[in-house]
Amino acid sequence: MQQDILINWSPQETRVAVIEHGAVQELHVERALERGLVGNIYLGKVARVLPGMQSAFIDIGLERAAFLHVGDLWQKPLEGEGLPAHRNGGPPRPIEKQVFEGQTLMVQVIKDPIGTKGARLSTQVSIAGRMLVFLPQDDHIGVSQKIPAGLRDELRTRVQALASAGVAGGKTGGFILRTNAEDATDAELADDIAYLRKAWARIKDAATRQPPASLLHEDLNLLQRVLRDLAGDHTQAIRIDSMEQFHALMAFGREFMPAAAGHLQHYKGERPIFDLYSVDEEIGKALGRRVDLKSGGYLVIDQTEALTTIDVNTGGYVGARNFDDTVFKTNLEAAQAIARQLRLRNLGGIVIIDFIDMAQAEHQQAVLAELRKQLARDRVKTQVGAFRRWGWWR
Q1: What backbone phi and psi angles, to 5 degrees, belong to 177?
Q2: What is the phi/psi pair of residue 100, to 5°?
Q3: Three-state DSSP class for 310?
Q4: For the segment 109-127, what is each residue's pLDDT rounded down to a tens digit?
Q5: CATH class name, domain 41-83+99-122
Q6: 142: which of 222, 266, 285, 333 lies 20 to 30 Å off by Cα?
Q7: Please, which residues bridge with residue 354 across strands?
Q8: Four-CA torsion 257, 262, 16, 179, nearest 10 degrees
Q9: How far apart are CA 307 and CA 355, in angstroms?
Q10: Cα 58 from chain centroid (whole Å)
Q11: Do residues 36 and 26 make contact, with C-beta atoms less than 8 angstroms apart?
Q12: pLDDT for res 89
């Protein structure tokens, strides 16, 4: 299914809309002030070692020094083992025997600063890709526990073969397969490995040139994630309304994702880019509790901390020949609309849908089949249950 991606950029906020058949299917928003530091990699300088706390304060160029605990120090695995010594039952070496004041360390933020507390750091570096997480200091291949057990060995073997083939000029480092790698092709996995190894090579190079307390790597922003996560073979165009960000994104794409960068276009129209497909109007609808269907039926969507409920109603729809057909057609349309609303609102967890009762088993199966078909387009893995007296869950 062909799609266009529209990007509206401002210094305060980036908004991305995915359009299919003239309708908004996904909406992503990132506000500049809400971006955290988790995942960022710095060249830190040890400011103070505290043996009594088995910790150290590290200057990474922020207002407050960051915090490094001995348990977050990476240690070389034992000979023939896949884990550092202290993770095989022994205690970690004292921090004062591993770091010293004035020493430079490559560190990664694992917890944002809160209040008067500085960021928490680790020297165990990991870089997240679309389907894989790269562990440059390790050599094992891990698999997400959410991937079915029967597929884990096969995926591990495939990634091991691709990693050993020296994709992007290297053979070292370990990987963890993320959940959305379950259905990945070898080409997609190879692209992710290449991107991650290029990113690591850039980080190592920056560490040799930058002074202490410098940022070496920042987790991808929404613009960059468009190329990594959203663009694909079905993408016709990626239009962005900022010339400055267009050039920056093009440079990033040419280095890491040349195929996706080929779809980039600078939007020069006089109308705001989101006016092209009434995106702002769709945003307003996505915030509403009631969603009208074209047939005259409607959905009522309620969110709680524990789950989301969706109630399907016929409303004013009376166009079918009999009541059973009316209910069936309303539920079919609702199944399509529900999948779209889950994407638009970025809803997950437990979702209970109260479809209108259907007497015929074949109608129930047809509605479930349509729901599964529409949800299969999501990058997020979804489990669909069956009709029950008390509902359906996602």
Answers
A1: -80, 125
A2: -145, 155
A3: strand
A4: 999 998 888 999 999 999 9
A5: mainly beta
A6: 222
A7: 311
A8: -40
A9: 17
A10: 29
A11: no
A12: 52
Confidence at residue 85, expressed as pLDDT on a 0 to 100 scale:
47
CATH number of the domain at 125-209, please? 3.30.230.10
**Residue whose tokens read 């994702």:** 257
Question: Where are the chain's structural domains?
Answer: 1-32+221-287, 41-83+99-122, 125-209, 289-375
According to the 3-state scheme, what is the secondary structure of 177-225? ECHHHCCCCHHHHHHHHHHHHHHHHHHHHHHHHCCCCEEEECCCCHHHH
Which pLDDT tens digit goes with each residue over 26-50? 889 999 888 889 999 999 999 999 9
At the fourth CATH level, the homologous superfamily of domain 1-32+221-287 is eRF1 domain 2 (3.30.420.60)
Return the residue matching tokens 């397969």: 177
**Long-range CB pairs of 143-148, under 8 A, 24+ apart, other chains included:** 143/176, 143/177, 144/176, 144/177, 144/178, 144/179, 144/181, 146/179, 146/381, 147/177, 147/179, 147/181, 147/182, 148/182
The pLDDT score that the predictor gives to residue 21 is 82
Residue count of the chain, please give it.
Answer: 394
Dihedral angle sign, alpha carbons of residues 103, 106, 110, 115: positive
Which tokens hold the place of 220? 């991808």
pLDDT higher than threshold 50 for residue 392: no
Give the global pTM.
0.76
The yes-or-no verdict on residue 75 having pLDDT over 80 is no
Per-residue pLDDT of 142-181, as tens digits, reads 999 888 888 999 999 999 999 887 655 566 789 999 988 8
Mean pLDDT for 52-76 is 92
Contacts 24+ apart (CB under 8 A), 283-290: 283/27, 286/27, 286/341, 286/344, 286/345
d(CA 154, CA 139): 18
